[in-house]
Amino acid sequence: MKLEVITHKCTGCRICEIACSFHRDREMNPVSSSIMLHRNEKKDYFGVMIKREKEVFLGRPEGAEVLLPGEKAEGAGASSKPIVMREACDLCEGEDFLFCVAVCPSGCLVEEGGAS
Ligand code: SF4
Ligand code: SF4
Fold first, then answer.
1. Alpha carbons 42 and 40: distance in angstroms, whole number
2. Which ligand 2 atom is nearest residue 12's CA?
3. The whole model's pTM is what?
4. What distance in angstroms lies between residue 30's CA and the mean position of ligand 1's atoms?
């Protein structure tokens, strides 16, 4: 099972953050979420970031990139910092489906490979 991001489809609603925090803590508090909205404060556009074990995935309208520890996305504001400290996405271990995929209203988040 794999979490895929169709990078140009994100609308910035942030529901995925809430869903992930519910998986993490059974609370609707995005502070613990492994996925969060990336906002570029100068260009006034956004994408989605996912904390992985050894990297941060960043999907923006122009495509996807991977940030290694210490790297920062060009133009990223303070919104990009907190995710580095968070738990990595565990593909909703112990759940029956990927919570962020289930709630994403735009089809930006897609489960590849099916539930195990
Ligand atoms: S797959 Fe689960 S753990 Fe990973 S970002 Fe989505 S909700 Fe969070
Ligand atoms: S739920 Fe989907 S559309 Fe909304 S912020 Fe997350 S990835 Fe973007």
1. 6
2. 5
3. 0.89
4. 12
Select from 36, 39, 42, 29 the least CA-distant residue to 56: 36
| CA of 98, nearest ligand number | 1
Across the chain, mean pLDDT equals: 87
| Domains identified in the chain, total number | 1
- According to DSSP, the residues that pair with 82 across neighbouring strands are none
Write out pLDDT tens, residues 93-114.
Answer: 999 999 999 999 999 999 998 5
User: Which domain range does residue 97 map to?
Assistant: 2-112
Alpha carbon nearest to ligand 2 atom 3, residue: 10
